[in-house]
Amino acid sequence: MVEVGQQATNRRRSIWEVGITALRLGLTSFGGPVAHLGYFYEEYVKRKKWIDDKTYADLVALCQFLPGPASSQVGIGIGFMRAGVWGALAAWLGFTLPSALALSLVAIWLQRASWDGGGWMHGLLLAAVAVVAQAVWEMARKFAAGRLEATLAVAAAAAVLLAPGAWSQVAVIVIAGVIGAAGLQKAGERPAAGVPPSTRRFTGLALLSLFATLLIVLPLARAWSHSPLLALADSFYRAGALVFGGGHVVLPLLEAEVVPQGWVAADQFLAGYSAAQAVPGPLFTFAAYIGMASFGWKGALVATMAIFLPSFLLVLGAFPFWHWLRHHPRFQAALAGINAAVVGILLAALYDPIWMKAVKGPADLAFVLGAFLLLSIWKWPAWAVVLVSFAGGWLRAWLG
């Protein structure tokens, strides 16, 4: 009995330690997903020594293969390996809470601010152009360098521009995966030390089945109930389940879901997206901003939980099957096709609504080019460029 009690105490301490460590990272991790992974490596591998280098590399690879926010998924996986399901929840909550609260407060402030004469607002819109343009450029170099990949990216951009909407984007992703599996040759990767299975195959299958079931059931429940919060949960769950390629790709999926519904205006949406660049933590907490702007605190809570729920189900469900997936050539090829398509989807979003809404003349174009230069050549962090754009827009309006 004493030994069992000691084990329970140790587990509670581990959960608490995971939560506090993740909270510290959530307060200080600026710079986007790649920077987050660097912070995680320094904290979890080098300082805490909770996992070794090879296991960390394997976990990062797993999360990059899955849809959703890779850095948050890595944190969830480390929390799970350290302290079980409650550890995964503590890791997610600590890393997510600071930016979710900050963006919820930004939503409240923007609702009370003046939208008509705010030069700072236009500065935020122009910052969004530069940030997304850099994301398109970097992703194209990585995921659309070959002939077929580039063709898929251009075709995807044309398709979603000609047939806008969330479901057309889903169709483009599925078709690109099929084309990639048929036409792209990708060798399977050599397994490293390996992510510890931690869950049985039956449990993994159950979690993955729940992930797929919710994709089908939530839209049906939404149509049947006409509940605004259920509609919000459906939209954000689908966004979290279908975003390949990082946090920036959530922009077009969410824009197609929330702006036509009238939950937020296009200006509000893009301003919030820019604000999300200026806070630490995962970009997916943009969901908290939209939820707060649409339905208050209940909306912020529902949207944030819904967009991250697929990450929990996928990461914990995929652990037992990762080694098979990692060296399966067809899976690798399908993923290459999907990654190329999301470059095109993000390119389409760069044009409409971002460019169309923000760039009104030569001065705006010069502003965007300057911000892009700071991001791509001078390597300024996105949050710094957003703050400069905010101040520059305000100063420009003040000077008339």
What brief labels describe this structure?
single chain, 400 residues, mainly alpha, 16 helices, 0% strand
Give an account of the 3D structure.
Helix 1 (2-28) packs across helix 4, helix 2 crosses helix 4 (70-112) and helix 4 packs across helix 11 (266-277). The chain has 400 residues and is mostly helical. It has one domain (2-399). The model has no long low-confidence stretch (mean pLDDT 84). It has helices at 2-28, 33-47, 53-65, 70-112, 119-143, 147-162, 166-183, 201-225, 228-242, 250-258, 266-277, 286-318, 322-326, 329-358, 362-376, 382-399. It is a multi-pass membrane protein. Keywords: Cell membrane, Membrane, Transmembrane, Transmembrane helix.
Brief summary:
The protein has about 400 residues and is mainly α.
